[in-house]
Amino acid sequence: DAGVIQSPRHEVTEMGQEVTLRCKPISGHNSLFWYRQTMMRGLELLIYFNNNVPIDDSGMPEDRFSAKMPNASFSTLKIQPSEPRDSAVYFCASSGERFNYGYTFGSGTRLTVV
Amino acid sequence: EDQVTQSPEALRLQEGESSSLNCSYTVSGLRGLFWYRQDPGKGPEFLFTLYSAGEEKEKERLKATLTKKESFLHITAPKPEDSATYLCAVRNSGYALNFGKGTSLLVTP
């Protein structure tokens, strides 16, 4: 298995622009998570989906952030409009029913908003 | 609210110098404590899951232990390739993992 695949790996954008981050979870995993990592706050859960349905989006910082999971093999995290304080590494992770092994993380997208 | 505190924030060891990393937690209804390793520029990589006080897990030079309030990650005779950030996380009744900020470990030859 190729693992959790995220794209792009790096994104540099100007303040006010729309940014879309993409994630392909591991085939057969039914839970998907979006996390944001910064030096100051560490790893923060933004939203998670179970069977393509958003279960908890309480970590989404503002209405500027939105996430979708149209099918079991694809999810997006969109920021519109982007701001410099959104600069961070965004991770997608997935897990199966047997949670013993926690999540499998992707390699992340490093977002820089200038 | 779940809280996870890791200490120290950073640790520098000589190769072969054993030590322990600490993870203190408060959670209502622990359904697993997880240890991850994160290398620069990569996502966290799963190491261990512990479920109940007294439980221990081992993998090569790493051993994780769990009490009702904290977990330790013991590193025996570390090598430079063990240098990484080690993250601790807890799971309560939901699906989400709540992470600590990690301990950055540097092992020098």
3D architecture notes:
- The complex is a heterodimer of chains A (114) and B (109).
- With 114 residues, chain A is mainly beta.
- Chain A is 0% helix and 54% strand.
- Chain A contains no helices and eleven strands.
- Chain B starts with a strand and ends with a strand.
- In chain B, the strands form two sheets. In chain B, strands 2, 4, 5, 9, 10 and 11 form a six-stranded mixed beta sheet that branches.
- Chain B has 109 residues and is mostly beta strands.
- Chain B is globular, with a radius of gyration of 13 Å.
- The mean pLDDT of chain B is 95.
- Chain B has no helices and eleven strands.
- Classes of the chains: A mainly beta (114), B mainly beta (109).
- The interface between A and B is medium-sized, with 24 and 22 residues.
Name the features.
heterodimer; A: 114 residues; mainly beta; seven-stranded mixed β-sheet; 11 strands; B: 109 residues; six-stranded mixed β-sheet; five-stranded antiparallel β-sheet
